[in-house]
From TrEMBL:
Domain Beta-xylosidase C-terminal Concanavalin A-like: 344-538
Family under the similarity heading: Belongs to the glycosyl hydrolase 43 family.
UniProt xrefs under InterPro entries: ConA-like_dom_sf, GH43_C2, Glyco_hydro_43, Glyco_hydro_beta-prop_sf, Glycosyl_Hydrlase_43
Domain of life the protein comes from: Eukaryota
Coiled-coil residues: none
Protein keywords: Glycosidase, Hydrolase, Signal
Signal peptide residues on this chain, from the entry's feature table: 1-19
Protein name: Beta-xylosidase C-terminal Concanavalin A-like domain-containing protein
Length: 577
């Protein structure tokens, strides 16, 4: 019946009709929240992506999908401090660390190449390999070398020889055994835009294609291509450059670029890129640079044609919806609901800002997440307490425009100025916190009391607000909430666990605080922290300050796909014409 209607109403030939009927619609971003610089491949019908993580640890998350829409977090290429000993604790800057990874599959192995910035010896190229990306421990210690250029790619020529293209379209020939750069060839200078970066090299129909971003990763971002019949050039620029951009438009999805291309099992081409849901106003975009998917038409011998990035997309038939992937990691759009039962594994989607202090986090024998405070607070200062030695802070990426993040926190900071709480965190210089703080109650009796303190750090920070914990709440755990009430504002609420319907609003902050600012490359993280605010010595706080997360939930309540239209969080749709 359905097909009969198609045949009657379709003015095209029946083959074209069927093709039309099968085209899919879906929503961007496909990896929502901070997922910048995506690189993806397809291996035996499963798609794999990696994104940049800068100083977050674990880093270089690997996502897998069978349908291009449901992406499961399956592992991190960088998951053990010992893979790069001492790298994290030497990295000072908030936007250093791992930049612009590339994932490729070769000879049965997955390869992730990436450069690490912020180490004294120069830009460190790292190559992580795994034959089973569903297991974290399968990612070996990286091969490393000092690289003269960043944004590294992996390209095997027809003869099987590996080359490493890098930013500025430079082709590096590296002896991986010694780390020696044997040769460096400039392939193509680009179209003249600033910051030619994130190059990928493809081989198709007798051509070598270079795809590269230019214009910087903000409103002026765009993607260009060039091709040559010889690896070392000369390269002819695509007559339709830029091949992909939202520059100069009033689209909600801006900054589109840093693309990678791959094929599905039906032979259709797709691309991923980063994009920011900011509109041209470029003012409030707490989720930073997210991963978008776009269909690509790439006929034999022709230049690829990329569909412009929008919130609602239409293109090639998507593979059938299939969430049947190994592992227990979240799908990107899923909610968190953790009570950390005794003996359970640490959820894969939780991350730290640099490697955490040793032993600071564990699942308590009676259940719950135990956090030992760090001497460094979230902001940090000076040399010893700037956060390099670890901050007791654990979070998850904000993946929805509208959401509610709630933590039931059992915290009784034993000394004045010690605190634990929840945070809306972009970097150490831009965050808003709702803490349970210990304050001097009566100087004669030397006693302390618990107060709720809302405090924000950064240019547009509202004033601090302190509220005494109501006596009726007793000494039990406190439910702390951060909620995106609309696309521009976050509120901070507290309640006793037994009176959750009457929370106290302790603060409100504009998303401007966590948009760009000191974190132009990263995006907002929601998390829990505990600090003894510099007391103690070495890496140790005074004892007895441990706090317990009894319950941790995060649920999306909506995704904006235009500046004014919201779709439900979590479930994407795809349907035939
Ligand atoms: C930094 O990490 C390395 C490797 O884990 C360790 O040997 C070193 O002691 C750490 N440095 C400091 C100052 O803790
Ligand atoms: C289906 O999607 C592809 C990829 O975007 C496009 O080239 C093609 O024109 C679409 N077909 C129809 C009938 O819309
Ligand atoms: C954070 O720690 C630094 C260094 O110990 C200190 O100067 C600052 O007052 C602390 N800030 C807060 C908000 O506790
Ligand atoms: C943190 O400690 C410093 C001194 O070590 C003190 O001046 C500051 O007020 C404390 N900050 C808070 C927020 O308690
Ligand atoms: C107040 O309490 C702190 C922490 O228990 C202790 O170190 C300090 O000596 C006490 N001060 C007085 C005056 O009792
Ligand atoms: C968003 O919420 C904030 C805080 O409640 C409010 O001040 C602001 O007017 C709201 N914006 C819109 C567009 O409703
Ligand atoms: C309609 C639909 O797709 N529902 C799905 C929403 O997501 C949950 C998991 O998060 C699935 O179980 C539902 O089938």
């Amino acid at each position: 019946m359905l097909s009969l209607i198609f045949l009657i109403t379709c003015a095209l030939s029946w083959q074209e009709c069927l093709a039309t009927a099968q085209n899919s619609t879906y929503f961007n971003p496909v990896l929502s929240g901070w997922h910048s610089d995506p690189s993806c491949i397809q291996v035996d019908g499963t798609f794999y992506c990696v994104t940049s993580t800068f100083i977050a640890f674990p880093g270089l998350p690997i996502y897998a999908s069978r349908d291009l829409i449901n992406w499961r977090l399956i592992s991190h290429a960088w998951n053990r401090e010992s893979q790069l000993p001492g790298a994290s604790n030497q990295t000072h800057g908030q936007q250093e660390g791992f930049y612009a990874a590339t994932i490729r599959h070769h000879d049965g192995e997955f390869w992730v190449i990436c450069e690490y910035l912020g180490l004294p010896g120069g830009m460190l190229a790292t190559i992580f390999k795994s034959s089973d990306p569903y297991t974290e421990t399968s990612w070996a210690d990286p091969i490393t070398f000092i690289t003269p250029a960043g944004d590294l790619d992996l390209f095997w020529d027809d003869d099987g020889k590996l080359y490493i293209p890098a930013g500025g379209a430079v082709l590096l020939d590296v002896d991986l055994a010694t780390g020696e750069i044997l040769d460096s060839t400039a392939l193509w200078s680009g179209t003249g835009g600033v910051w030619p970066e994130g190059p990928h090299l493809y081989r198709k129909d007798g051509y070598y294609y270079i795809s590269s971003a230019e214009g910087g990763t903000e409103l002026g971002h765009y993607q260009v291509m060039a091709r040559s019949t010889s690896l070392t050039g000369p390269y002819e620029p695509c007559p339709y450059n830029p091949v992909l951009t939202n520059k100069g438009t009033d689209e909600y999805f801006q900054t589109v670029g840093h693309a990678d291309l791959f094929q599905d099992l039906s032979g259709n081409w797709w691309g991923v890129a980063l994009s920011t849901r900011s509109g041209p106003e470029w003012s409030i975009y707490p989720m930073g640079r997210e991963t978008v998917l776009f269909p690509v038409t790439w006929d034999e011998g022709e230049w690829p044609v990329m569909e412009p990035v929008r919130g609602e997309m239409s293109g090639w038939p998507l593979p059938q919806t299939d969430r049947n992937l190994p592992g227990d990691g979240l799908f990107n759009a899923d909610r968190d609901m953790y009570d950390f039962p005794a003996g359970s594994r640490f959820p894969l989607n939780l991350l730290y800002w640099r490697a955490p202090p040793e032993g600071a986090f564990s699942i308590a024998p009676e259940g719950g997440l135990r956090i030992s405070p760090s001497r460094a607070n979230l902001t940090g200062d000076g040399d010893e307490l700037d956060g390099r030695l670890g901050i007791s802070f654990v979070g998850r990426v904000q993946t929805d425009s509208l959401f509610k993040f709630q933590v039931l926190l059992d915290a009784h900071p034993p000394y004045v100025d010690h605190e634990a709480g929840v945070t809306l965190f972009l970097t150490q210089n831009n965050h808003a916190d709702l803490g349970i703080v210990s304050r001097a109650a009566d100087s004669c009796k030397n006693s302390t009391e618990r107060v709720l303190r809302f405090r924000a750090v950064g240019d547009t920070a509202p004033p601090e607000n302190i509220v005494t914990v109501p006596e009726t709440w007793g000494a039990g755990p406190i439910l702390l909430t951060i909620e995106a009430v609309n696309a521009t504002h976050f509120t901070f609420l507290a309640s006793s666990d037994s009176q959750t319907e009457e929370p106290i609003e302790v603060g409100t902050v504009s998303g401007r605080l966590v948009s760009g600012q000191s974190g132009p490359f990263t995006g907002t993280i929601l998390g829990v922290y505990a600090t003894c605010n510099g007391s103690g010595d070495g890496s140790r706080c005074p004892p007895d300050g441990d706090v317990y997360v009894k319950r941790w939930t995060y649920a999306g309540h909506g995704q904006l796909y235009t500046s004014s239209e919201v779709r439900p969080s979590s479930n994407y749709t795809s349907f035939g014409g």
